[in-house]
Amino acid sequence: xxxxxxxxxxxxxxxxxxxxxxxxxxxxxxxxxxxxxxxxxxxxxxxxxxxxxxxxxxxxxxxxxxxxxxxxxxxxxxxxxxxxxxxxxxxxxxxxxxxxxxxxxxxxxxxxxxxxxxxxxxxxxxxxxxxxxxxxxxxxxxxxxxxxxxxxxxxxxxxxxxxxxxxxxxxxxxxxxxxxxxxxxxx
Length: 187
Hints:
The protein has 187 residues and is an alpha+beta fold. The protein folds into two domains: 4-136, no CATH class; 147-186, no CATH class. It is 24% helix and 35% strand.
């Protein structure tokens, strides 16, 4: 918790104006959060806090890099991070998350910890498909396979349809037979 305490902002007694905070951290930040997504990284965050009588607006600008494992080769690589996000904290009677950007906090809150917001914004800026930079230039994509290269593993079609063609016409589901009779009676 010592590492995360650097991200505490005392809001009690702040005047209604804009405040700037600069925060910097590395591996200890990610270790302290007890998560499995990111283990190593280094980043700087500039937080602009704008306080008014009814809310606090937080604007986060985070730059740095994190170490990820390539999904294809399992080689570690550095992924740059550049994130610009904001959160609005409205004062209310309880703590509640309304949307991704708006939360209600108790009006008696003395201090907020912005570490969870910073981590969420870093995690959201990561690519879904983690590819080593040397592989990103390749034209290969899973969707680019030729039709010749696709192997059919399972098929629901019957193999010998020509042999059973006559038998399948004779074996009609009784429900369909009843429906055909109804259709025939309307003519």
